Here is the input.
Amino acid sequence: MQDGVLFLTVNHQGGPRGGDELASQNWWMGMAQRPFARGSLTFNLMLSAEPLTVGRDGYREIFQAGEALDHIAVIDRQHPHDFLVQAAAVWRRPLGRGYALTVAGAPVGEPALGPVAFMHRASAAEQPTAPLAHHTMDSTHIAMGVLTAGLDRGPWEIESSIFRGREPDDDRWDLMDPGALDSWSVRGWYRPGPSLSVQISHGFLNEPEELEPGDVRRTTASVSWTRPHARGVTATTIAYGRNDKPGKDFNALLAEATHSFGVHALYGRFESVQVETDLLRFGVHGFVGRKGAHVPEGTGGVDVVSALTLGGTRRIARWAGWDMSAGADATFYAVPGVLEPTHGAHPVSFHLFVRIRPPAPMGRMTDVTMTRMMR
Here is the structure.
């Protein structure tokens, strides 16, 4: 089984920190499965050419922050995926009485933390960019040295992982970043039917950021609803994420939806994200790492940025299973006063893009995690 996507994007980011560029966000994933030891053994491989197609510093996305490049914080840009996004082996074995055990290992993979990663969510399938809440919810979809065990019965599943907590380094072409398995996570799922899934998770990340001292406690919750219909699919996700960091906590709320009908699709995303305003203004962490530090509201410590994206696509070609669509979207922001001098009071960003998907005769790999591929 395989799936993938390639966006060729004209990207305009508004405001003083914005700009124009041509970039390509992309990924490919393959899965192979066979019976093994009274269960099933699955191999997952996921690759991305983004280190080449968007560059070492990623693509423009105002108000985005996370990770580092050459020991400098990456701000107002979304960093590229690593070339090797995932390489995992997953064994699942029924135990009787409706129970099943899942064991997974990956030198590079996804621990049991957060909602389905944005690239795989059906509710975000037509959107070329990462959400601003990425580093509050699902940034651990690329982690090193992941070991996961899970137990499921009927609609219920619980899984737990140990892994290396540090974010990938800025060499996006290396195959892995070795280190101690110093972090952990636990995640619970409730799937009462094929359309609805609910997850809640919590994890401890050992010093995930190179330039941001201290450990992080991440808590997430999400509800996703995906419903195929005669002419397409309707999918929605509502998610909440929280990073408890030394000195301050950061919260994010996301709601997104996609509705496809025939050759057309409409999509939207709303986010309200707490950001570290000193980091966005000056490129340095102003207070994080000082345990017990008190940052008064409105002093440039933590403020809320909200963003609303509306867009759509139209299929323009289909040949031998290949699918090509053209699309566009626009994003409108609510900006806190402290960031208006650097980002503008009312910036507007937009994308014009072509989206190409390869043949997937066994179905698209949407709403999947490392331990739960299409079955």
Residues 288-300 have pLDDT under 50 and may be disordered. DSSP finds four helices and 19 strands in the chain.
